[in-house]
Amino acid sequence: MREQSARTAALVLCIVSYLLVGAAVFDALESEAESGRKRLLAQKRSELRRKYGFSAEDYRELERLALQAEPHRAGRQWKFAGSFYFAITVITTIGYGHAAPGTDSGKVFCMFYALLGIPLTLVTFQSLGERLNALVRRLLLAAKRCLGLRRPRVSPENMVVAGLLVCAGTLALGAAAFAHFEGWTFFHAYYYCFITLTTIGFGDFVALQNDEALQRKPPYVAFSFLYILLGLTVIGAFLNLVVLRFLAAGADAPERAARPLRPGAPESRGPAHRAGLLSISCRLHRLELCARDNPGFSPPASPGAGGGQTRRPPARRKSI
Amino acid sequence: MREQSARTAALVLCIVSYLLVGAAVFDALESEAESGRKRLLAQKRSELRRKYGFSAEDYRELERLALQAEPHRAGRQWKFAGSFYFAITVITTIGYGHAAPGTDSGKVFCMFYALLGIPLTLVTFQSLGERLNALVRRLLLAAKRCLGLRRPRVSPENMVVAGLLVCAGTLALGAAAFAHFEGWTFFHAYYYCFITLTTIGFGDFVALQNDEALQRKPPYVAFSFLYILLGLTVIGAFLNLVVLRFLAAGADAPERAARPLRPGAPESRGPAHRAGLLSISCRLHRLELCARDNPGFSPPASPGAGGGQTRRPPARRKSI
Question: Cβ contacts (< 8 Å) between B96 and chain A: which residues?
Fold first, then answer.
């Protein structure tokens, strides 16, 4: 118990430090540019105001209208296709926000929808990820056999490397596709895929927002939806593989020293002993052992995973 | 294997149906209102255009400026406090998008930052959630002893009910606080907390965007950060409790019928038998048994986890 509390405290300290470092770096990278953009915007704004002689109130009204009109410019967001897209962003927790419920009943339904949908999605991606890992393991075994190895075996390291390659490939494939369909640079499309599949989903880039694609380009719409769902499976399966490995390594070491695991030991010696044997570290250690031996095994996956942009590359409001 | 594939297929079918139903309901709830708002906006826009007589191009420029200026209006987003806030939204995958990296180097750093930060956050919340569940279990045991029960025992159902109450309480507390500080209605603040703590993070409501709070109200800033991190712990711990229970129930049934679990059975009868015994369902079943017996146990948590608004309640552009 005390070890667990110490480990928790250490992790919290780690996170706080990580946030402080991140904040410092983002400040250094973005603050300067923010000031520059702010000055430029203020300049352009006063030029327009001088040209037309807007009153302060009318100008604010114009700005408000512009902000509210933005999603409409991107097409109908709440027809079936748009609603389906929105529903995906809810249950996968991507949450671009390119559209958000405007009515109170929409907000209420959204919350209940998420309440049931998110756990359902987690369970589904766990299942899909496990199947994917099983498939990858089978393919690796077959490949090793083809290479003529006498006792082919797929190690955890093989799986991690394979996982990395599949993830990178998925991101690159998506980047190429969205760069082509949305007119983004490859880098911005890659960034979009990354932010989507980690479910961060800023919404600075959102697919299907150009040329009323939601209504006019059903094949592209279908591709986008499939990409998000398959991509999340891939990232989730890999994240799980890596995170569980770390959990097993971290939780295991101090307790493994105290209680060596004996494969033949009977389990029933009383509840205390059973509880001891079946402590978290033991369980995780066994999970790890079985991950090696059992091709079908994959621990519960938590999906990790993002947005479109208007035609004009100078970013939507969020990229300040 | 075949059962696992069938289960996966069933889950996928389930998700697709869930999305179809969700899309239909969102369409019904929001489409009408969207058309209404669009008409109203177009009307107001033409009134202003008639009044000032600006060209189509200048109007588009105005709209672009308004969109780009919006985050600036909410204050400096990339000073240290704002960057810290942004860093939180990245590693927790909330991703409001109220600010997003404008520079390419910011985008690159953001991706690497997320790559390491997200797994680190998952592990930390798993650890914190486990400690929280342990504390809740201890409190429940103590409460039952106080009530004079002779053999106090905390059942999984007790834990789920307690979890629900803690989650609801967390949301209500946050709603009250943000309604007060941001000037939102209680309902909108509750919606904000929900969307934040499930990490959907639309960004239609974002805290700390009024009155330059990031620079001027350090206590409120600290409160907001703490609320997000503690709230995610609570929601993550509960989600895990519930999701694992479902995983154990779902994965267990067909295999349990085939292989009854005998407490005293030795484990080493050969790799096939061991693999069979240590199949996923067996493991999950044991995890469930130990969740009952071991006060400290809690399965890996995936954090689930909200947005600010400008002073004028008529929503930011996203709530169309």
Answer: 97, 202
